[in-house]
Amino acid sequence: MTRLFNDPATFTEDMLAGFLDANAHYVTGVPGGVVRATETPSGKVAVVVGGGSGHYPAFCGVVGPGFADGAVVGNIFTSPSTREAASVARAAHGDAGVLLITGNYAGDVMNFGLAVTQLQTEGIDARYLAVTDDIASAPTDDIAKRRGIAGDFTVFRCASAAAEEGRDLDGVEAVARRANDRTRTLGVAFDGCTMPGADRPLFTVDAGTMDLGLGIHGEPGVSSHSMPTAAELAELLVTGVLAEKPAGTGIRIAVILNGLGRTKYEELFVVWKTAAALLAEAGYTVVQPEVGELVTSLDMAGCSLTVMWLDDELERLWTSPADTPAYRKGRMAATDATPRCSETAQATSAQIEQADTNGAAAAHLVAAGISAIAAQMVAAEAELGRIDAVAGDGDHGRGMVKGTGAACAAADSAVFQGGGPEAVLTAAGEAWAAKAGGTSGVLWGAWAGPARWPNAASEPPMPERYPWRCASTPSPT
To answer: Which chain regions cross the lipid bilayer (predicted)?
Structure first.
């Protein structure tokens, strides 16, 4: 159970404030997340990672030299909003473009993809990649639908190292895609995780059993098995991952045995003892393995095994130095880094057009309606979370409360500034999408703020409007 919090509704904000204070020599806060405490050098591609919180060290814990330039931090298990993703990418960007990377979840794909579109309209060369390493979430003939779990780390690591070496944006993106294509993960859970303030876990595992194929947002596994010994678990994970060896790959591999939050390091080392022997027996050479917590799921009990099949370039990048709050390897070369300015340019809000008497009266009615919606969401928060937990991560109630609360405040502000109903809906929609995050934040924000969306009759086809969209549907969580 997640026991330490003040107000569950502000858990992410409180966590981020403490993290920034403790790691001020590495990172600085910007709207939506964190960036390195030093400016991105001229000619360097910025790599921005992100997703919902609850996975530390991912995502903010890997921002620093040799690793990511920024991390977008959403609510627990909830995609950050489009505004937050664009804000962090804008702050991290130097002059050589930016690559955004997340796990393959519908909310992340939608919000980060829209952020890329927005950044491109501002003249920033931005790209996006969704990691698809989870072999349990879709079959081999539909890999594009797989989730991103602990394999996020290998892709983040190699892409960031390539950017640190000075590769251009095309080169960094190519490395990230190759790392993703060569990475496979399989995980197990012994018990579910509990959201701050909740009195029960998102899912439970029967005594004496484990779930195979869990997600990192509190999703249960795809099948239940009797609880194995450490050696039996190692064999299950190694056999499962090696069965998915990508075509054309060799025998040198990077391996992560990842703890999910409540499994002790000592237990992981016991599992690794057998896993290492099995990998050697299979003819593989393991290059600088990682055993520990790298991509967690709050207090979930469980672990996962990730394998990335290396080539010469990926091996060099995997073993390169890095220095971040949560991950350090080797020694970074000294540089004349420039401390980041405290003020970072952000997109400005449009001025609110003044309404006439009738428009002002209508605006009051619209704001009152949004206030009523917000009140209903507060009353329904627990039930919405319970329903969502059946199929996903149980965050929907909290996201809707945050989104509608922000929409209500923005609507009231627009009314106070003299705006009409269109201005009220636009402000409410932007605030809803920005604070709720996830897929629902985008959809409800679009509904509340129709003035922000082009006329459907004049829009180009979907692929032309949103070229970042995946060819296949990502995980819905």
So the answer is: none
Rounded CA separation 327/292 (Å): 11
How far, in Å, CA of 160 to CA of 329, rounded?
A: 14
Residues 437 and 391 in one domain: yes
| Block residue for tokens 């609507």 | 411
Tell me: do 234 and 287 sit in the same domain: yes
Question: β-strand 223-226 against 209-212: which pairing, if any?
Answer: antiparallel
DSSP-H helix ranges across 182-264: 230-242
Whole-model pTM: value is 0.85
Task: Verify that 236 and 105 share a domain, yes or no.
Answer: no
CATH code at 271?
3.30.1180.20
pLDDT, mean of residues 365-383: 90
| CATH number, domain with residue 102 | 3.40.50.10440
Amino acid, single-letter form, for residue 310: L
Number of domains in the chain: 3
Residues designated catalytic: 217
| Segment 256-292, tens digit of pLDDT | 999 999 999 999 999 999 999 999 999 999 999 999 9
Select from 262, 292, 320 the last residue of a domain.
320
Tokens representing 198? 């909740």
Q: Kindly state whether residue 43 falls inside one of the protein's structural domains.
A: yes
Average pLDDT over residues 201-214: 89
* Whole-angstrom distance, CA of residue 417 vs CA of residue 415: 5
Does any domain span residue 373? yes
d(CA 209, CA 212): 10
Are 219 and 299 found together in one domain?
Answer: yes
Give, for 11, the enclosing helix (H) or strand (E). Answer: helix 11-22
* Structure confidence at residue 455 (pLDDT): 41
Kindly state the DSSP code that residue 214 receives in the 8-state scheme: -
Rounded to 10 degrees, what is the CA torsion of 411, 413, 416, 421? -30
Q: Residue 140 pLDDT > 80, yes or no?
A: yes
Residue 316 counted as domain residue: yes
**Are the C-beta atoms of 393 and 217 separated by less than 8 Å?**
yes
Q: Residue 404 corresponds to which tokens in the numbers above?
A: 């509608």
From CA 270, how far away is CA 291, in angstroms rounded?
11
Task: List 183's β-bridge partners, or say none.
Answer: 308
Q: Which domain holds residue 409?
A: 357-448
Q: Does residue 476 sit within a domain?
A: no
CB 44 within 8 A of CB 94: yes
DSSP designation for 43: T
Q: Tens digit of pLDDT for each residue in 184-198? A: 999 999 998 888 888
Q: Which residue has the tokens 């997109």?
A: 347
* Unique residue bearing structure tokens 């998915």: 244
Each residue's pLDDT tens digit, 65-104 = 999 999 999 999 989 999 999 999 999 999 999 999 999 9
Higher pLDDT, 437 or 285: 285
Q: What's the CA gap between 379 and 381, in Å, rounded?
A: 6
